[in-house]
């Protein structure tokens, strides 16, 4: 029995030894997933920067933030520039920090009042009164569509839902940046790796 366990441990250890050459794939997948999201969000803010500034500063229908022009440009450039940096794997740990801060600010200032869920679903975890009320309104919307519209055609590509706009997405993106902060861009698949290797900081 001991010899069998020793053999299995040796095989497992050998597999882990060779798998280390592929440990950059995890950070790469995270980067390729999250980078376009940040790039697009930042670009949308940049091309409509006046509207973004107004939304950041207005206390009635916006966020009511101080220094809205600075905050709007900071958010736009951090998301756009940080997204590009993550895409090529340049300064991944460095850019993960302001991106995490941006997600925390977004979660607290925009989404927190709505709870956790991004899409209202009373059958799932973290549902609140807002989600339950949204589901009741959704049922009415579906009844109206069935009675007065072509419901099968309208829902051919997906069911009708109500956005709850909770912190779910902001928290998820923030946690992905948190992981990238500790993992870096990844072995072989990031500019950071090759820059460090050229400087003799990464073993061949």
Q: Can you tell me the residue ranges where pLDDT is under 50 for at least 5 consecutive residues?
A: none
Strand percent estimate: under 5%
Please tell me how large the radius of gyration is: 23 Å
> Total number of β-strand segments?
0
Q: How confident overall, as mean pLDDT?
A: 91
| Count of helix runs | 9
Structural description of this entry:
The protein has helices at 2-19, 25-47, 49-57, 68-88, 92-111, 129-148, 151-154, 168-183, 191-198. It is mostly helical and 204 residues long. The protein has two domains: 24-113 and 171-204, no CATH class; 117-165, no CATH class. Helix 3 packs across helix 4. The longest helix is centred in the N-terminal third of the chain and has 23 residues, at 25-47. The two termini are 38 Å apart.
Key words describing this protein structure:
204 residues, mainly alpha, 2 domains, single chain
